[in-house]
Prior knowledge:
By secondary structure, this protein is of the alpha/beta class. It has a single domain (3-203), classed as Rossmann fold. Helix content is 29%, strand content 26%. It has eight helices and seven strands; from the N terminus they run H-H-E-H-E-H-H-E-E-H-E-H-H-E-E. The protein has helices at 3-10, 23-28, 46-52, 65-72, 83-87, 120-133, 149-152, 166-172, and strands spanning 36-40, 57-62, 91-95, 108-114, 134-145, 177-186, 195-203. Strands 3-2-1-4-5-7-6 form a seven-stranded mixed beta sheet. Strand 4 (108-114), helix 6 and strand 5 (134-145) form a beta-alpha-beta unit. The radius of gyration is 16 Å and the shape is globular. The chain starts with a helix and ends with a strand.
Amino acid sequence: MDASxxxxxxxxAELEWGAEPNRFLVQEIEGLEPGRALDIAAGEGRNAIWVxxxxxxxxxxxxxxxxxxxARQPDAExxxxxxxxxxxxxxxxxxxxxxxxxxxxxxxxxAVVFYLHLVASEMRKVLGxxxxxxxxxxxxxxxxxxRANLTDGVGGPQDPAILLDAQVVASELEDLVIEKAERxxxxxxxxxxxxxxxxxRARKP
Length: 205
């Protein structure tokens, strides 16, 4: 899907993914000292805003201007969500295609890449730039639909070329120390079986 297609999805009054942060984000950054954080493919900002509310200085990037506008601006219409305004936090919002976005070098203490699904060459490019943007000791957290989800899980993209494999993702992060690279199960409301995700957590030495 391109940015215009995502704009259509995000233009609805309700939040596409809900207001609460991803459960794996909550689990995995517990205990980290707040610093500067980068949220790649941030969508409507639920994760970025949750991280910012815990004392981090957050930059959130997404290619959908509708999603970014939805996250950051107060609105007179009560039916419209504006998460950052409601939560009283400040986030640097950036409208950009993450494939082309250059976050800089040794800028961030935390980077999260959640449910970003690209062909291998583009994913490699994004992860390389994000890894380079980490400061020494910084953490990179990646979560996405696992390849096994296509046959054994529920939901998510149906193109195997853009699904993730923990070991493949970890192998791309040559300059980082891999702390976790695993397949995880996620309950989906109303579904008879669980979704299967990839989770990789890495640290810049």
